Amino acid sequence: MSEKKSSAKSSTHMVQVRRIYDEAQTSDGARILVDRVWPRGVSKDKAELDDWVKDVAPSTELRKWYSHDPEKFDEFARRFREELKSDEAEQALDELRELAQKGTLTLLTAAKRDDISQATVLAEILNDGKKTSGKRSRKNSTGTTKSGSKKSSSKQDSE
């Protein structure tokens, strides 16, 4: 069996996704926040950001509709990709592409699950459509989180 290697495109760049609450690593390269809203409890000094690019964040309406519901992720990703066709988003994506060509690019988000965040969608786009693999990229076919369903477990646990 032989592996196909692409000679047309150089994949010397790497785009990864991390939570802004995680400690910065030397391997992060350029650290870019891609949320529209500044994350709670994070000082600008502690964030160790190179930039905050709001123009690639989902609209407030889309963000509120999605509410990080794993069941809605595929539809969220589709709608978000449509939003990214705006002039402002295209320009911001071009800036991110330029950063990625220079070396490692880390897209930061405050989402509890970065594997179903807008940062993951952006990383896929910037990595030429390849799925990104993160430490929390496991999908649960039932749509529940690792800690169980958010919808009913908190009331049942307290009873």
Describe the structure.
This protein has 159 residues and is an alpha/beta fold. It is 33% helix and 10% strand. The protein has one domain (15-133). The protein has helices at 44-47, 60-66, 73-83, 87-102, 118-126, 153-158, and strands at 15-19, 30-33, 51-52, 105-109. A four-stranded parallel sheet has the order 1-4-2-3. The longest helix has 16 residues, at 87-102.
Largest sheet: 4 strands, parallel
N-to-C span: 57 Å
From N to C, what is the helix and strand string? EEHEHHHEHH
Estimate the global geometry from the Cα principal axes.
globular
Q: Numbering strands along the chain, what is their spatial order in the largest sheet?
A: 1-4-2-3
* Rg: 17 Å
Total of domains: 1
> Number of DSSP strands?
4
Binned, the helix content reads 25-40%
Rounded average pLDDT: 79
Question: Which blocks of ≥5 consecutive residues have pLDDT under 50?
Answer: 1-11, 132-159
Condensed summary:
The protein is α/β, with parallel strands linked by helices. The protein has six helices and four strands; from the N terminus they run E-E-H-E-H-H-H-E-H-H.
